Amino acid sequence: MGALTGIRVLDLSRVLAGPWCGQILADLGAEVIKVERPGSGDDTRGWGPPWMKDGDGEWTAEASYYQSANRGKRSVAIDLASAEGQELVRALVADCDVLIENYKAGSLKKYGLDYATLAELNPRLVYCSITGFGQTGPRAAEPGYDFIIQGLGGLMSITGERDDLPGGGPQKTGVAVADLMTGLYSTIAIQAALINREKTGRGQHCDMALLDVQVATLANQSVNYLASGKVPGRYGNAHANIVPYQVFRAADRDFIIACGNDAQFVALCGAIGLPELSTDPRFIRNADRVRHRDQLVEILATHFLAGMADEWVAKIHAVKVPVGAINNIAQALDEPQIQARDMLVNIPHPLNPAFTMVGSPIKLSETPVEYQRPAPMLGQDTDAVLRDRLGLSADQLAGLKDLGIIEQSPR
User: Fold this and answer.
1) Residue 305 pLDDT more than 90?
2) Residue 43 catalytic?
């Protein structure tokens, strides 16, 4: 029994932000029914290579990208452009707690699948809309993509190396953080709305925008600007407010120091054989070190080139100053701590019984996450869901398939 067992979710979303939200809800025990287009399904089904391998090590047609955001769900292939398909979705909504969608603002109204219409049908429905710019404002009708939002929302202006250094310039992050953070905030909004429903008996509309989330998650950087009037710039792998807090190069490879306070700086200087730095008037307090960033970093950078990264890490770790290597993804997944935390999970797939993916980071003592199923193949559960939830007969299902309104996976 998961924390959200008994909650039924209809997931009409595609790509990443909405599916990420739906996957979290599924991990927590909710029943998540993913509605996809017959024939093609979620856009990310075609976002390969790489693809998932089958049990014999051969490539399948199941995209790894799709697998990353859709475990735990059931797939129902319904044509929303048809009146019959719209009626099927409305019938499913009548018995659902949550609906997630990421269509352009207002576009589901023509299908009778907007919040106002569905709330009349099911007043307890929590309806979560995820768009680039939200349901209101001058850009509400525009499509939103993570890359664009990272630029518009200010993140790229503080990500990347300084313009005066090699490789300088704005840089997006290595994963779609605007999408992922919006998925997380949407999960919070949905759960808050479900809790409120217990008090009021009514659901509500959650209006979630990637741009809103991106601006909100600028966190200290936006408040730095509001406090000072100075627009933050890019510091590469350094920190705007803390020094030393960045990547340094040793003789063999890079490593990270995250020195968070003055006591840690004293300990760091002693550990690396430069105790005099901690009493230098330029560097005694963090505010001093921020003002004299370039001088301190130059001293440390030159010093660290004389030793190997593992040696520096061991010395610094011994005095309890945060320090660490920079892993590639293979090394990160092989970290003993990741193994000990059960972050790699086997979720048998019909095409690959040994299918493995990264699991949920949520650890609950009473209702732990359970992995009920892998990401579904397109339309894998169409017949079962429509039969069990709506009572459709075999003849009715066959008729809808003949019209192209629904599709069932052949597997």
Assistant:
1) yes
2) no
When pLDDT is averaged across residues 328-350 and rounded to a whole number, the result is: 95
Tell me the two tokens of residue 225. Answer: 């600007």
Q: 0.90 cut: is pTM over it?
A: yes
| 17 token code pair | 């932000």
Active-site annotation holder among 114, 179, 212, 381: 179
Please tell me the distance from the alpha carbon of residue 374 to that of residue 29, in angstroms, as a whole number: 14
Place of tokens 């069932």: 408
Say which residues have a Cβ less than 8 Å from residue 253's Cβ, sequence separation at least 6: 309, 325, 326
Helices (H), 237-342: 262-271, 286-291, 293-304, 309-318, 329-333, 336-340
241's CB contacts (< 8 A; 6+ apart) are: 220, 224, 286, 290
192: alpha, beta or left, given left = phi > 0 and alpha = psi -120 to 50? alpha
With a CB cutoff of 8 Å and minimum separation 6, the contacts of 36 are 14, 42, 75, 76, 77, 78, 378, 379
Using omega within 30 degrees of 0 as the cis cutoff, is the peptide bond preceding 123 cis?
A: no
Residue type at position 138: P
Distances (CA, A) of 316 to 19, 216, 225, 283, 343: 41, 34, 33, 18, 27
- 35, 65 contact by CB (below 8 A): no
Longest alpha-carbon distance in the chain: 84
Q: Burial letters for 111-127: b for 16+ Cβ neighbours within 10 Å, e otherwise?
A: bebbbeebbeebeebbb
Dist CA 264 CA 292 (whole Å)? 18
Which residues neighbour 373 within 8 Å (Cβ) at sequence distance 6 or greater?
71, 72, 73, 74, 347
Q: pLDDT of 346-405, one tens digit each? A: 999 999 999 999 999 999 999 999 999 999 999 999 999 999 999 999 999 999 999 999
